[in-house]
Input
Amino acid sequence: MLYIAEKPELARAIVEALGGGEKRREYYECGADRVTWCFGHMLELCQPQDYDLAFKKWSLTDLPLFFVPWRKRTLAKSKEQFAVIAATVSQIFNDVPVVATMDAANLPVVAAAFKEKYPDKEQVIFADRTLGKENDQDHAKQAAEKTGAGIATPRFASNEKTSDFSTSNDLAAKSELGKDAVTEQCEAAVETAKGRSAEIARKKDQEKTRSDKGLVRE
Output
């Protein structure tokens, strides 16, 4: 189980609640569990040149500069901690590469960008149902439709109220189904992603074949 705390002080409190652990450089090991943390401002808005190198030097005549969607990047001081969190998550899911979009609204853009860069790789989107932010899952569905990704949405026991259980953390730590359910549901989503990717590839091959035949007829 991986616990990602909001700040180091909370991480230490979690470690204490778990019965103690061994301090590493950027995380604690508590038996089979790990506890790591975020801190302060870990992200900043991208600069104009991050969108287009032509804006590395800009003048007042270029204003206003407006980029949609606005992107963020990790601060130099937080890059190592981000790497630790991503690597730890990756290890938990059997060394599967992990990408954190940080905001659900970024999901369609990030998923599309990675699909373009890695067209042969399956994607799985872990879409928690955050209470009060139900449209977060809509963003996940949009991303999945664009990329053929699988979606892992926490599913709880029938007697567990949705008002008390909504996230993957709840499934692992609070639900009677436990951590094994997280793994099982994620693995099922991976299989779904493989099937959808194969279907998309098959349709593309069919379209190419029809196009080639059309060119031959001409």
User: Anything to note?
Assistant: The longest strand covers residues 33-37. The beta strands are 2-5, 22-23, 27-30, 33-37, 43-45, 72-74, 124-126, 150-152.
